[in-house]
C-alpha cells in the first residue's frame, strides 16, 4: 500500500500540473485572439482608412484638373484628369475587396456611382469643347458640384465607421490583454501557494517522524540509565 504522504504528494502536484497546463492553454488561446484582432486592426481597418483618404485625394485631383481643362482646354490637364481617374478606380477596387459589411459595400457602390456620373458629365463637356459647341456650362458645373458633395459625404461616413471600428478593436485588445494578465497572475499565485503548502506538509511530516524516532531512542537510553545497577548481578552464581 502506498504511504499516505506519497499519495498526497502525487495528488497535489498532479493538480498543480493540470492547472499549469490549463493556464498555458488559456494564454495560447488569448494570444491567438489578440493576434487576429491586431491583424484586423492593422491590415483591414487602418488600410481602409488610408485607402479611403487616397480615394478622396484622387477624386479631388480629378475635379481640379477637370476644372482647369474647362478653362484652358489644354490636353495636358485632360491627361492628368485621366491619370487620377485611374488612381480612383484602383483605390475603389481595393476598398471593395476589403469591405466587411453590407453598409460599407453600399457606401462604396454609391460613391462609385456618383463618380461615374461625374465622369459622364465631364466627358460630355469635353465633347462640346472639342467640337467648339456652346452648352450650359453653369448647369453642368452645378450638377458636378452636387455629385462631388455626395461622394465626399459617402467617403466621410465610410472613414468615420472604420475609425470607430479601429478604436473598438484596440479597446477589445486592451481588455483582453488585461483579463489575460489578471488570470495568469492569479493562477501563478495559486500555484505558488499550493507548492508552498505541499512542501510544508511533506517536510512537516518528515520532521515529525524524525522527532518521534529521536524521542524513542532517548527514552530507551533513559530507561537503561535509570535502571538499578544491581540487575547486572541477577542470575550470576555466588
Q: What do these coordinates show?
A:
With 238 residues, this protein is mostly helical. The chain has a single domain (27-196), classed as Four Helix Bundle (Hemerythrin (Met), subunit A). Helix content is 89%, strand content 0%. It contains 4 helices and no strands. The radius of gyration is 42 Å and the shape is rod-shaped. The longest helix has 90 residues, at 137-226. Helix 1 packs antiparallel against helix 2, helix 1 (4-72) runs antiparallel to helix 4 (137-226) and helix 3 runs antiparallel to helix 4 (137-226).
Strand content: under 5%
First-to-last CA distance: 55 Å
In percent, how helical is the residue content?
over 70%
Largest sheet: none
Give the beta-strand count: 0
Q: What is the architecture at the second tier of CATH?
A: Up-down Bundle
- Outline: rod-shaped
What structural class do you assign from the helix and strand content?
mainly alpha
Poorly predicted residue ranges? 219-227, 229-238
The residue-averaged pLDDT reads 79
Order of helices and strands: HHHH
Could you please say which CATH topology applies here? Four Helix Bundle (Hemerythrin (Met), subunit A)
The CATH homologous superfamily is called Aspartate receptor, ligand-binding domain
Structurally, how many domains make up the residues? 1
Oligomer: single chain
- Taking all Cα atoms into account, the compactness measure Rg is 42 Å
Instruction: Name the CATH class.
Output: Mainly Alpha
> What's the helix count?
4
Amino acid at each position: 500500500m502506498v504511504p499516505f504522504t506519497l499519495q498526497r504528494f502525487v495528488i497535489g502536484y498532479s493538480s498543480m500540473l493540470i492547472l499549469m497546463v490549463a493556464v498555458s492553454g488559456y494564454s495560447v488561446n488569448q494570444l491567438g485572439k489578440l493576434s487576429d484582432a491586431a491583424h484586423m486592426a492593422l491590415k483591414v481597418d487602418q488600410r481602409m482608412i488610408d485607402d479611403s483618404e487616397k480615394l478622396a485625394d484622387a477624386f479631388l485631383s480629378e475635379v481640379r484638373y477637370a476644372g482647369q481643362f474647362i478653362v484652358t482646354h489644354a490636353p495636358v490637364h485632360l491627361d492628368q484628369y485621366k491619370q487620377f481617374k485611374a488612381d480612383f478606380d484602383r483605390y475603389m477596387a481595393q476598398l471593395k475587396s476589403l469591405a466587411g459589411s453590407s453598409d460599407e459595400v453600399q457606401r462604396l457602390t454609391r460613391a462609385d456611382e456618383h463618380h461615374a456620373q461625374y465622369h459622364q458629365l465631364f466627358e460630355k463637356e469635353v465633347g462640346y469643347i472639342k467640337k467648339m459647341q456652346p452648352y450650359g456650362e453653369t448647369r453642368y458645373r452645378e450638377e458636378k458640384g452636387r455629385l462631388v458633395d455626395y461622394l465626399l459625404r459617402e467617403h466621410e461616413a465610410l472613414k468615420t465607421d472604420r475609425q470607430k471600428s479601429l478604436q473598438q478593436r484596440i479597446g477589445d485588445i486592451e481588455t483582453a490583454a488585461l483579463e489575460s494578465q489578471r488570470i495568469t497572475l492569479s493562477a501563478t499565485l495559486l500555484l505558488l501557494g499550493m507548492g508552498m503548502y505541499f512542501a510544508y506538509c511533506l517536510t512537516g511530516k518528515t520532521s515529525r517522524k524524525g522527532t518521534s524516532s529521536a524521542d524513542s531512542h532517548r527514552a530507551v537510553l533513559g530507561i537503561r540509565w535509570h535502571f538499578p545497577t544491581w540487575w547486572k548481578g541477577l542470575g550470576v552464581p555466588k
